[in-house]
Design goal:
The structure holds 2 protein chains of 2 kinds. Chain A is mostly beta strands. Chain A contains no helices and 9 strands. Chain A has a 5-stranded mixed sheet, with no helix packed on it. By secondary structure, chain B is an all-beta fold. Helix content of chain B is about 0%, strand content about 50%. In chain B, a hairpin with a 2-residue loop joins strand 5 and strand 6 (about 55). Chain B is globular and about 40 Å long. Classes of the chains: A mainly beta, B mainly beta. The interface between A and B is medium-sized, with 21 and 25 residues.
Amino acid sequence: DAKTTQPNSMESNEEEPVHLPCNHSTISGTDYIHWYRQLPSQGPEYVIHGLTSNVNNRMASLAIAEDRKSSTLILHRATLRDAAVYYCILRREYGNKLVFGAGTILRVKS
Amino acid sequence: GAGVSQSPRYKVAKRGQDVALRCDPISGHVSLFWYQQALGQGPEFLTYFQNEAQLDKSGLPSDRFFAERPEGSVSTLKIQRTQQEDSAVYLCASRSGAGEHEQFFGPGTRLTVL
């Protein structure tokens, strides 16, 4: 499985945008980029996924570099409820298991 | 609708005891996954079912770990002769179909082996 690299932790102010980076230089052409987050004492929660084009949904936006070797999860307006561990995961097309790394701990200050 | 549920939420076992952890996936979901999450780490894949068939058990750490899903819905993860290193949160996830992307996770069962 291709590996992802994320910063250990990031801090944001409430109501400001947050850009969470992920490097995946060994990504293959059939790997989808997935983001999950895990709030304290809960199971992971799907956030967004993409292949080549940027993606938007109600939770976040995903910006994918043209060479696909990096991506950024964008939370447009961080709230205290967004404080969580954010995982960037590569999943092969038709693949099943998710391979989690250590993720990025996002702290949101009021 | 109801999400993935797991029981018990907390389990304390003495070393050497057998434990059984239950997962109720979202109704109609074909795929079911088990993950193990040690303290401070990301979840690690254990095993995968499509309906009642266990298609991937490459992540099970030893033959003390056994999972089943006999009728293609509820799943049980059994750990025999528990050891202290088995202490972790065990997460279950389900997915509506093999081609779908999103996995829906339950809240997990926290297992503590004394």
